[in-house]
Amino acid sequence: xxxxxxxxxxxxxxxxxxxxxxxxxxxxxxxxxxxxxxxxxxxxxxxxxxxxxxxxxxxxxxxxxxxxxxxxxxxxxxxxxxxxxxxxxxxxxxxxxxxxxxxxxxxxxxxxxxx
Length: 115
Prior knowledge:
Elements: H1 3-9, E1 15-16, H2 17-24, H3 28-36, E2 43-44, E3 54-56, H4 58-72, H5 85-111
Antiparallel strand pairs: 1-3, 2-3
Helix pairs in contact: 2-4
């Protein structure tokens, strides 16, 4: 099952930090850093501080997955500190689609297959 489909299918519940780490492919330390710097918002079960459990909603899980993938792709996560991660990703995908279209046109031109 595709990860986003799994998360959507289970959107009626909260996820544990361990589940988020597994889905995002990151360490607890990375996850905690992203929360402390405000990249991700988690829902706390108890008071803020060391040793308190966090519950994660669907959007927070998706943010963690996206941040982890962007980080592995070489994007400097600190640059995203004031960004809405979901909106950033949508813009990134739109820009990538335009780039792919332009590259296809360039290849067609170079191969002489352009109509």
